[in-house]
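Action item from last week, closing it out:
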Amino acid sequence: MFSQLPPNYDKSPKISVDAPPTSCVSGWTGIAARLRGEIANRSSKRTILAVECYAGVHVSEILEGLNPLGAAHVVDTAEAFLPEKEIDAMVDRFNGGDDPVFGTICNLRMGDFLDPAACETLRAKIRATTDGLVLVVGAAASLIAEPSDLLVYADMPRWEAQMRMRRNEIANLGTANHSLKWSLQYKRAFFTDWRVCDRLKRDLMGRWDHVLDTTIPGQPRMVEGAAVRSALRHATARPFRVVPFFDPAPWGGQWMKEVCDLDRSEKNFGWCFDCVPEENSLLLDFGGTTVELPSINLVFQEPKALLGEKVHARFGEEFPIRFDFLDTMDGGHLSFQVHPLTGYIQDHFGMHYTQDESYYILDAGPGASVYLGTKTGTDSAAVAADLIAAQRGEKAFDDEQFINCWPAKKHDHFLIPAGTCHCSGANAMVLEISATPYIFTFKMWDWGRLGLDGLPRPINVERGLANIQWDRDTEWVDKNLVNRFEPIATGDGWREERTGLHDLEFIETRRHWFTKTVEHDTQGGVNVINLVEGREAVVESPEGKFQPFVVHYAETFIVPASVGRYTIRPHEEAEGLECATLKAFVRV
């Protein structure tokens, strides 16, 4: 089940950037010295330095780190925000009330969180400081200090922000709710804070003088804004990987520990997010200094080069394809669930499209299975009554009576358009390929277990029942959703198959088996690929547009639309052996 070879999965993939070594500086002492030099070179009596901070950044660390600048006046932007009760009331309509999971995507902007009178007081103090440095730090610094002489943007990957929530280190935007349960902080950040910060970030990206990476506390890096913008342009001209992150789960398994070389002392790892640009990060290597920035920045700055014109026209500045792992090897069943229909997610949550998906079985152990669709002849009212009784704790849900359980083996592919009830069973390693609205899962039965916090996980039977498509029964699922492999083409040492997804879904997937070079073409749209068989492969440009890019088993990588033609072939230890890739792209 597990490879006997040493793991070669790269957990920290980097993008090498051709930039002068002087473009990047490490440590607070070096950062302060760099800024001090730029301030001195301005030959002006007063300099306004704004440090705009993304939600989750430790403002106190920045204030302490820049203290050696000896500012004549320091502004902490927390003083500019509305009272917390007013902010809570403002965001409440987007926060879903008592719902522990769901809200509605907000339409707020950073200025909505600010108290006009408090802002004017701070601006008056800034105007009154006519000599020396005025340092403005925190969320909305760029608005309060407008116009500033120098703009530093302190960024933060969402994944690290989540870790800080779990450690009760941060609060939601404009509040001091550090002690709020982290899952509720996350919900508010997802529907409000991150949307607000992203809107401001997009406005500012072209103006960044410097970008500050404080992802690792106490180890800051600062890089010139122009160098960051150049690095992002460079990334869209070649294949690349985002930084994967791993997380335990109540149903989590043991496969990723071995194959991805994770901490063996952990109880399990259930999730790996290997292509979710909204939450993943990029590691940019500036001549030996690594800077970690949110990978969503690439989508914001270079959407057409990355996504392609047609995909960008359809989805805007969003990355519509998600790849992740679900590890239940020696673990348990996922929760029995369903994803909302398009009309439902638009009406209830303000999302433009829903989470269609599929399960590609990367590996499987004895008895592996996938639950998919209702059994023919199932009475929807009987299912509803049974789920409600299970939710009340009166009985276990009778999955054997109502739900299809399909045996699963390595390289099977199960298609899951929204509205199809489903879950992976135990002893499967799933490569999940889906559209990006990824928190919109309605759990209807969790097999009577508790979450990692020792409490029952949120169940959404009512929402689930409102979205189940009852005509997706045994015969329909077997005909439409299980292993719909279709030969497409063959060549010297390779063959291509269409594996889905279902016609109701906008993602197309193709599998290539190969012992020799396979030619690919983005055809103007972004490609997302995983090496599902074979120890190692290399991606190359026939025209030499980018350096050869080596990928390892189970790694997901992105090929930007602007790349055009590229090839993939077995590499080194895999040469002469059969490899396979699974490629996803948007049907246009």
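Closing note: The chain is about 25% helix and 30% strand.
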